[in-house]
Amino acid sequence: MAERQEIDDELFDLYDEFCHSAMSRRDFLDRAAAIGAIAGVAGLAGCQAKSLLPDYSKTVTVSFTDERIKATYVTYDSPGGNGGQMRGYLVMPAEGTGPFGSVLVVHENRGLNPYVKDVARRAAVEGFLALAPDALFPLGGYPGNDEDGKVLQRQLDREKIHTDMINSARYLAEHEASNGRLGVTGFCFGGGVSNSLAVELGGELRAAAPFYGGQPDLERVNSIKAEVMIHSAENDPRVNAGLPAYEEALTAAGVKHQSFLYPGTRHGFHNNSTPRYNHQAATLAWERTIELFRRQLNE
After folding, report:
1. In this predicted model, what pLDDT tens digit does every residue of 59-113 receive, in sequence order?
2. Using CA atoms, how far apart are residues 22 and 123, in angstroms rounded to an integer?
3. CATH assignment of 57-297?
4. Distances (CA, A) of 298 to 9, 64, 190, 212
């Protein structure tokens, strides 16, 4: 994996555009080479651009065979969603009978990739029942790579994806191994979903920890009953533009919340599959998230 300081800022910005638009992999690499050509380093820029694409061999911190957890796939009803049913990756601690505090883990804008499944396993290692839904299930599920996943997710009705996530949250809270205390965390698109679920679920949700996610309808912030912990990258103008107004609305509504801005980071800093990953910030943000969940979800 390339080190952060080796890659030009323009390439990081281009990669962010690639992740959040209809840009193809081929166009991304061609535009990266063009940026390099201007500086006389087209070949180097092309290599750096390829290094920005996810390498999921880097993401495994808790193996799916880890003896501390039990993991399985579950299918459940999702009325009003994109397909009427959903599939998710359910992980629980191997020891103890529960019930456990429950954490919904919401993926980015490309489906349930290996990084997000690993995050669910990390939550289970910390003693929580975790569910990572796959919004792409109505189209066959995560296709095995992020570029195709991004294309598939853009084909789904966004409002119905949110319905699928609400149904996933309620399925998790009602699971026999759950103590009924529900939290949510998510990344990028999933961060926005985390904020929206805090509004939609009201008192059903105890804690929300969005990572660099879009803000919800500010006029409905007073519906939030959960404690909210916002994790933001310093260099993320697209998402951060709405952050001050959101924080102001949370304060005005009397919602218990904290907001952390991590210096020197970019959008995606928690995802350890690309050079945007910042180990120090990701570790600290996750520790804070686990502290929030322990405080709000454990009996």
Report:
1. 899 999 999 999 999 999 999 999 999 999 999 999 988 999 999 999 999 999 9
2. 32
3. 3.40.50.1820
4. 42, 24, 23, 25
Q: Tell me the β-bridge partners of 75.
A: 87
Q: What pTM did the predictor assign?
A: 0.91
User: Where in the chain are the domains?
Assistant: 4-53, 57-297
Q: Are 104 and 195 in contact (CB under 8 A)?
A: no
Q: CA–CA separation, 263 vs 130, rounded Å? A: 29
Between CA 110 and CA 196 the distance in angstroms is 18
Structure tokens at 201: 């679920």
Place of tokens 């911190």: 61
Find the helix or strand (DSSP H, E) in which 243 lies. helix 243-252
Cis amide bond preceding 114, omega within 30: no
The pairing of beta strand 69-78 with beta strand 84-93: antiparallel
In whole angstroms, what is the distance from residue 63 CA to residue 158 CA? 32
> What whole-number distance in Å separates Cα of residue 189 and Cα of residue 56?
19
